[in-house]
Amino acid sequence: MAVLSPNKHLITTYMNADRSKSGELMTDDIQWVEWVDGVPPAGSVNEGKAAVMGNAGDDVLRNEITRMTEEGNVVVVEGICHVTKKDGSTLKVRFCNVFELKGGQVKRQDSFGALLKDST
Length: 120
Description:
Layout: H1 6-16, H2 19-22, E1 26-35, E2 43-47, H3 49-54, E3 60-71, E4 74-84, E5 90-102, E6 105-115
Parallel strand pairs: 1-6
Antiparallel strand pairs: 1-2, 3-4, 4-5, 5-6
């Protein structure tokens, strides 16, 4: 198994953390931008830790990371997010997240996602 750099380790921890603990891994002024299906894509912006945490919702997420690329303070993560909603329905989203890090925390996250056809 490959040894992860400190930045990749931080992002792996962040993406797999219980939501109640993920806030510890964010800067107070974090900016999270979510880009969803559509041309042009619609960008939903959340600024600040409280807004990002408040927008997290209560769906159960399991991330399957397929590739991580790092340059300087930026880590790009590709994969599939398996989501179980409160009503029991499930969906899968192919994602590409771009993380900007500062001082060992996530300062910005851009999330690009596309719903996969076999979602229920």
